[in-house]
Write a structure and sequence with these properties.
With 75 residues, the chain is an alpha+beta fold. It has one domain (2-72). Helices cover 49% and strands 13% of the residues. The longest helix has 37 residues, at 2-38. The termini are far apart. The mean pLDDT is 77.
Amino acid sequence: MQKRGLAFNMVILLGLVLIVIVIMGFLIARSTSTYTKSTSCENLGGKCTKKIDCEGKENFLQGCEEEEICCMEED
């Protein structure tokens, strides 16, 4: 009877650990998404344009379409 109780406790403990891991993964994924949005081209004052249309300084920030670059206006 002692072994059966120990096994049951282990199943409960593993279930709780799994729940904690899933919650932490969700929180990390959400914070990473927020970070990516806050460091995108347009949020930092740039404009997504084609390379030949850029009259400012080119930047390699995220958030532009495939054939566009992030163009920052020169001060």
